[in-house]
């Protein structure tokens, strides 16, 4: 059975929506790679620039996904998660289009997993950098409890400092 002109047009529109999500997701993945490289060399000023571009890229990805969701609903897909909608639509396609769509959908799924993983790694690196910076600042303020470190009074800390809660 050959697809009708309407079905071909619908499939073409689906492919375009898929392409928009793929393209914006690849751009986001590229920014995550750039962010990781800058985290490794601790280039704070460049990280600020990448963070701003990343926010914009995330908004673009979200808009592309929302556009795909709207399109799939217009094609009769159930009102569920986009992945469920896409899979439902893909299953209804004729064989050649179905195979091509399944391959592209799997590639997008893999890319989405890669983005999630990269974002978690970058987030963890930021968390560790923050903890290290906080620890250094605490030492500089004399607020450390580590033994062998000079305190505010110039003495080497041997026990955690105590605070005076009230003067008598």
Give an account of the 3D structure:
This protein is mainly alpha-helical and 168 residues long. It has a single domain, classed as Methane Monooxygenase Hydroxylase, Chain G, domain 1 (Up-down Bundle), CATH 1.20.58. 74% of the residues lie in helices and 0% in strands. The protein has four helices and no strands. The chain has helices spanning 5-41, 44-74, 82-91, 95-140. It starts with a helix and ends in a 28-residue tail after the last helix.
List its traits:
168 residues, rod-shaped, 4 helices, Methane Monooxygenase Hydroxylase, Chain G, domain 1, mainly alpha
In sequence order, what are the helices and strands, one letter per element? HHHH
Radius of gyration: 26 Å
Indicate the CATH architecture.
Up-down Bundle
Range of helix content: over 70%
Poorly predicted residue ranges: none
How would you describe the shape?
Answer: rod-shaped
Distance between the termini: 94 Å
CATH superfamily: FlgN-like
Number of strands: 0
Number of domains: 1
Structural class: mainly alpha
Mean pLDDT: 87
Largest sheet: none
Tell me the number of helical segments per DSSP (H or I, 4 or more residues long): 4
Q: How much strand? A: under 5%
């Amino acid at each position: 059975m050959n697809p009708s002109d309407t079905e071909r047009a619908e499939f073409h529109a689906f492919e375009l929506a898929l392409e928009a999500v793929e393209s914006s997701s690849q751009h986001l993945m590229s920014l995550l790679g750039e962010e990781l490289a800058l985290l490794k060399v601790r280039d704070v000023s460049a990280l600020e620039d990448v963070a701003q571009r990343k926010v914009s890229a995330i908004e673009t990805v979200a808009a592309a996904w929302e556009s795909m969701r709207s399109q799939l609903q217009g094609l009769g897909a159930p009102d569920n998660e986009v992945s469920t909608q896409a899979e439902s639509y893909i299953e209804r396609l004729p064989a050649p289009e179905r195979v091509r769509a399944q391959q592209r959908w799997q590639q997008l799924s893999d890319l989405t997993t890669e983005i999630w993983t990269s974002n978690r790694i970058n987030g963890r690196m930021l968390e560790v950098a923050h903890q290290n910076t906080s620890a250094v600042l605490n030492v500089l303020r004399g607020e450390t409890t580590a033994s062998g470190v000079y305190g505010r009074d110039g003495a080497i800390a041997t026990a955690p400092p105590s605070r005076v809660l009230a003067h008598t």
